[in-house]
Amino acid sequence: MNYSRFITAVSAARKASPIRVLTELMQTSPPSLISLAGGAPNPNTFPFKAASISIEDGTRVEIGEDLMKRALQYSASAGIPELLSWLKDLQRSLHNPPTADYRPEEGKMEMCVTTGSQQGLCNVFEMLINPGDTILLDAPSYPGTLAALRPLGCNIISVPSDHHGIIPKGLKEILSRWSPESTRKVNSDLPKFLYTVPNGSNPTGTSLTTDRKKEIYQLARQYDFLLIEDDPYYFLQFSKPWAPTFLSMDIDGRVIRTDSFSKILSSGLRIGFLTGPKPLIDRVILHIQVSTMHTSTFTQLMISQLLQQWGHKGFFDHVDRVIEFYKTQRDVMLTAADKWLKGLADWHAPAAGMFLWLKIKGISDTQHLIMEKALEKQVLLVPGRAFNIDSSEPSSYVRASFSLSSPSQIDQGFQRLAELIKEAI
Ligand SMILES: Cc1ncc(COP(=O)(O)O)c(C=O)c1O
């Protein structure tokens, strides 16, 4: 892989901050080292001394005085070492990435902790996109991605998809505008990457099948584009075995994967992680060095202590409990949809995530219905337009989330939506 082809001039110009390098060196040095180098404050002056956090299983995460001093201090931009190493083990055991043992310049698997997967996505987009670049998007799409992409001035091509995700034939057709040989041209205008949410997509709830992933990966090889696998709902797949990921197929080192603990441990602690070829992840880490410097040391330590206590088994036992909750909620929503919306809307049962994507029959644009009429009826959903590349384009869809409402609220909510649709058509 020629990674330099993908990187913007801004990203290529990033250099390691000498102070950050020293800080990181200090943190891995033996206690005998006398350092007069650091510009870090003295944690003995900080007001917080210790914390004890109770966990659902009756145990506690203890952050004693010494650990608290670390938790309140600056830390490495890539993430605290113990969390990074736990996450690397996790990625190896889940995805067995072919690149795990490659040489660094060949695209060896590298990782860093990010402040939610959103930061990882935003930094990756800024690393890759020059104004005028072409990219491929699995649309309708997550608004956080659209909002990060739009100001970068790229040419976004929407890839056709159905309830099994991206349709490889449709992608192939789009790519046929270029010849695979143009990958060798300097300044080729081939798409730089394809972005997709492969499991329980936000907003459509769809999950990409393994066969389609394989076909898409082959197309990425043929036309030499990167794959951005934004997978925050990976741990919310309702049936096992979980689908193989693009990362697990990545023999070239062309997959950048964003993971998130937001849906299973906490969204407010802001812990995500980025996995991809070292030459690209290193660029993101340089960006982190000069922007956030690092994700909060406190939240990283809090999560890391919990994961060390749990081990992989405890972590997956917890994930199973979370899945059980969302699966039950999904079933409640499907029952309510069957009861109230039959004949008024179409939908597919999501196999992961927290969203049901409803196509409202006889209504070409749901914007007015939801933003005005639904509010009057005291029910809130998201109109489909919010997920379109061009948000002024009409959409006959709405997104309903089954994460927060009780079964009776879901039932009543759909009853109100049914009344609304009937009144509107
Ligand atoms: C598809 C998708 N990607 C990324 C994110 C961002 O998640 P995080 O909380 O990890 O930043 C979300 C959040 O809803 C999402 O739905």
From TrEMBL:
Catalytic activity: 2-oxobutanoate + L-kynurenine = (2S)-2-aminobutanoate + kynurenate + H2O; 4-methyl-2-oxopentanoate + L-kynurenine = kynurenate + L-leucine + H2O; L-kynurenine + glyoxylate = kynurenate + glycine + H2O; 4-methylsulfanyl-2-oxobutanoate + L-kynurenine = kynurenate + L-methionine + H2O
Top-rank lineage group of the source organism: Eukaryota
Pathway(s): Amino-acid degradation; L-lysine degradation via saccharopine pathway; glutaryl-CoA from L-lysine: step 4/6
Gene Ontology biological process terms from the UniProt entry: alpha-amino acid metabolic process
Annotated ranges, domain Aminotransferase class I/classII large: 67-417
Entry GO terms, CC: mitochondrial matrix
Keyword Transferase: yes
InterPro entries: Aminotransferase_I/II_large, Class-I_PLP-dep_aminotransf, PyrdxlP-dep_Trfase, PyrdxlP-dep_Trfase_major, PyrdxlP-dep_Trfase_small
Annotated Pfam families: Aminotran_1_2
EC primary class: transferase
EC nos: 2.6.1.39, 2.6.1.4, 2.6.1.63, 2.6.1.7
Cofactor: pyridoxal 5'-phosphate
Protein task: Transaminase with broad substrate specificity. Has transaminase activity towards aminoadipate, kynurenine, methionine and glutamate. Shows activity also towards tryptophan, aspartate and hydroxykynurenine. Accepts a variety of oxo-acids as amino-group acceptors, with a preference for 2-oxoglutarate, 2-oxocaproic acid, phenylpyruvate and alpha-oxo-gamma-methiol butyric acid. Can also use glyoxylate as amino-group acceptor (in vitro).
UniProt-recorded name of the protein: Kynurenine/alpha-aminoadipate aminotransferase, mitochondrial
Organism: Eublepharis macularius (Leopard gecko)
Record lineage: Eukaryota, Metazoa, Chordata, Craniata, Vertebrata
